[in-house]
Amino acid sequence: MRPVKRRGAITGLTSAWLLAVSVSASAMPDQATAQASRLVAQMTPAEKISQLQSASPAIPRLNVPAYEWWSEGLHGLARDGEATVFPQAIGLAASWDADLLHAVGGAVAAQARDKFLATGLHEDHGRYNGLTLWSPNINIFRDPRWGRGQETYGEDPHLTATLGVAFIEGLQGDDPAHPTVIATPKHFVVHSGPEPGRHGFDVDVSPHDLEDTYLPAFRAAIVDGHAGSIMCAYNAIHGVPACALPWLLGERLRGDWGFKGFVVTDCDAVDDMTKFHHYRTDNAGSSASALRAGTDLNCGVAYDSLRKALAEGQVNEHDLDTAATRLFAARYRLGMFDTSMSRPHVDPDEQAALALRAASESIVLLKNRADVLPLKPGTRIAVVGPNADALSVLEANYHGTARHPVTPLDGLRQQFGAQRVSYAQGATLAEGVPVPIPVTALRSGQGGAAGLKGEYFEGSDLFGKLIVTRTDAKVDMDTDHAPPAKGLGASGYAVRWSGQLLPPGPGDYTLSVRVDRCFDCRGHDPVHLYLDGRLISATDGDQEPTAAKIHVDDAQPHDLRLEWQHSGEDQGIHLQWIAPPEAQLAEARRAANDADVVVAFVCLSPEVEGEELKVDVPGFLGGDRTDIGLPSTQRKLLEAVSAGGKPLVVVLMSGSAVAMTWAKDHADAILAAWYPGEQGGAAIARTLAGVVNPAGRLPVTFYRDARDLPPFIDYDMKGRTYRYFDGEPLYGFGDGLSYTTFAYDAPVLSSARVKAGDPMDVSVRVRNTGARSGDEVVQLYLAYPGVAGAPRRALVGFQRIPLAAGEQRIVQFHLDARALSLVDAAGVRAVRAGRYELFAGGRQPAAGQVPVTFTITGHADVPR
């Protein structure tokens, strides 16, 4: 497929101009390398070693400021205060819109550079304040049980490669000699769980699967996207840790792909080589192996052992020079020593609008029985579900602090009117998993407003100057490097919340306070929770606040007070509970009975799926899932609210596929909204109202049961993803509906007989046959009849296009030799003679769909 032309790109450029840019781009990196080489030559061996670690110290005598290489930009600039929070990566992938990914990447880069320069060009830059973003995650989401799959662009190599390249180009900008930031695709390579044991597992991957599935997106990121760095993974491949694998980092990355940038480890991966892989007996040996293999930068401090390795002759000073020069060349290209660097223009309103567009494009309509959607104006809506009003399901993981997050409950009230929207939480996420205490269970005093009275004090105790008094609907706050109220700093304040707890009914309750703790913090902020004047939960040091179990005999209010002294670096606070299921279900039934339609916000959250979490409850383990079905607490909620006969709309909020078997059979409509970012609630409400016509497509397969899949620890692709799964999925990769309809003519080929190595053009006419305008995602699949070991079919092209009602358009695809190639059992990619089939449509080919066939003659190898 041809590279996507970005919206607003300048066309008609002359070949002379393109040649001039090419020459300039190739010359400038050499200049940066020369500058870096001269600087490194002035350093002592100890200074060079210090610069090969992520927290690189200043070298005052050489006017080199300290620089922390670790920054994140997965779906917005992360962990450095207020920043636009876009949909999680899996949601961005559901847009199937490369232009959108490019725009989001550009927005993230602009915010990163703006914050970097706000600190000061020649100042020391700490963690998350740099211009080297360790994003995107382009691992293949091979199994829905992996908790970090939410960070990826899904299960398909072509979709991942196309979106990854667009995001990288957006991050780095148009000038390869002077990138806005440097992108770091990760985790190289063959890394997708399980999370428990991730620091020491060894992958026995076949040559076919490596070349066919796991490497293509990384190749595209380097060869087509020109990423300036890459992160090697924790795992070993056939017994050798990825960060010490010479053929991977040398022969393939720098040789075959021509990579000129720097390689960084996943954090503490060199330590893992010693402690868990037992690859070498100490960190000196592990560090030497990684450095010689081509790993330039260690996230962590293990490379400090290179001092010993150098003394023992395991490495030489030339090895240090090579790595240090690559790193300083990157800093020169980024302009870190250029006093003329100017701050970019960052418009928060424009970025919020982009976040709304991204969230809207990511929504996938999976079911719409009897056209229950869009909802009509004046509809009375009962909102239920644990994800209806929770901040975490907007922000996901690796996120910034959203300025004005809009939850689904907020969005529906704004879109349809607060008087027409009732709310009942209805359930917890899963058995034993707390959720935020909802606004319906909080009152700011006798006869007061819903929520709690919040008093915000200057200083990290409760005796400072009172800055703000307000009513907070709930205590569910992200305060990472950002003040919770105007007039306060990012730290050094205290808050007292007071009011009443209104239990929905009698039973046993568990009350708890969760604090979002930073990676390297020592100790928690002091937290004290009181019920009816009695201290029930507290922490003053290193432990999490304790959970309190209470029993109530009725639904009478109880006095509640929460005190938080924010003196450290904890990143947020959340007042949570586990309420009695019977009481919550009864409350949800009452809301449903008084409404015209029920909209249930269910599924998962970053509290149960994510990176190496401390979670061990039914269905979840260490951030991964052991059961891909909807947790039983939420399934019972859906059954309860549907029993009254009101139409039921189910909105899935998760980072991965969930087996919604009951909902597929019984719900009237189903949407997948993923973790939709700061404007997610507004996007969902606009979609339910028909202001937005949904056009997202699934970037993953929704399986019916985990038993349909091979063992999670097995990296063999047989039986996984739409390309190799022979069963009947619940919903297929590429699925998605619209409020309008589309029709396709048969694809037209440039030739029905293609010589191996030559390209082929495909065109298809698409018509909007409905009464609404809408986007259509045109998908092109290639099938390989009778070829042993080949995928059942493979996506080879896609385009998201807008079509007005009645409009038609011819969509064109260009398939090059790589798109027409196959990988054999030995891992050799080539275009091979045979008869092939092409299908075009808005989803994978349906049963009985007639393909267009063509023949390839001859044989042509394709570069690795």
UniProtKB/TrEMBL annotation:
One of its GO terms (molecular function) is alpha-L-arabinofuranosidase activity. InterPro entries: BXL, Fn3-like, GH, Glyco_hydro_3_C, Glyco_hydro_3_C_sf, Glyco_hydro_3_N, Glyco_hydro_3_N_sf, Ig-like_fold. SUPFAM superfamilies: (Trans)glycosidases, Anthrax protective antigen, Beta-D-glucan exohydrolase, C-terminal domain. Residues 1-27 form the signal peptide. Pfam families: Fn3-like, Glyco_hydro_3, Glyco_hydro_3_C, PA14. Coiled coil: none annotated. Keywords: Hydrolase, Signal. One of its GO terms (biological process) is xylan catabolic process. SMART domains: Fn3_like, PA14. The keyword Signal applies. Residues 447-592 form the PA14 domain. Belongs to the glycosyl hydrolase 3 family. This is Beta-glucosidase. It comes from Dyella jiangningensis. The lineage of its organism: Bacteria, Pseudomonadati, Pseudomonadota, Gammaproteobacteria, Lysobacterales.
